[in-house]
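Regression report. Comparing outputs from two consecutive submissions.

Submission 1:
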Amino acid sequence: MQGIPGPRGPRGEPGEVRLPGVVVTPNVMRYFYTTDTLVALDPPLVIPANQFTDDNGNAVTELMEITSSGYSNLYINGMMQEGRIFSVTPDRLTLFSPGDVLLAGTPVILQVFQFSAQVVV
């Protein structure tokens, strides 16, 4: 059995409030490819990862994976492309644009962005 509660005591001093901070760190990779010849996009064009170079002109073996905390942009001849015309996997870029062609010497630039977040107190 429990008795009647006693009187309420005086209010204490407020404690220190520490709001955590969040540090968001981007990781950005750019991949470069140039067509050698006229390329029809029927069927879809598949560019293997090892055909790309990085910002330093080095050959790459795979493209950065795009996870739920990232995204990609594709530029063809300097123009950003709609997301529906391409897909990216670590081993290739695939272009889906039936009826279109890429002229010889057309630059294809893929940007892949990944973000990580860390809570700091």
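Submission 2:
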Amino acid sequence: LNNILAKIQANLAGVDDAVMLDLDGFVSETNATNLFLVRGGEVLTPFADSCLPGITRGVVIELCRRHDIPVAERNLSLTEVYTADECFTTGTMGELSPVIEVDGRIIGGGAIGPATSRLQDIFAAKTSLEGERLPF
């Protein structure tokens, strides 16, 4: 129910999704996707105990490790989101989607960053080789 209410509030605010916080005030996820930040070349995502441990999230973490991209799961503050070099979400439908603005604050340079772009390419290569195309 919380995610549905957050989506309604996001729609009323004219934005795509809402960033959700856990009971301690740390970032957990968005109302529909998992959230990742990039700071100083390291990919960061909240602990899975405060969010839905999405399949795409797990694949991205695995791909980071396989391709020697530093990755960590830890508590993340909203301030860290605002000041991140890059931000992206993961989900089944959107795969890896760049986030360029949160709460009216531009993330990084306001465009897809190099780490996000690289991970999109790595993810696309994996799904192209191993995925099954759907007929729609």
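Expected: both submissions complete independently.
Actual: both completed, but the second showed a warning that disappeared on reload.
Relevant detail on submission 2: The CA atoms of residues 63 and 126 lie 9 Å apart.
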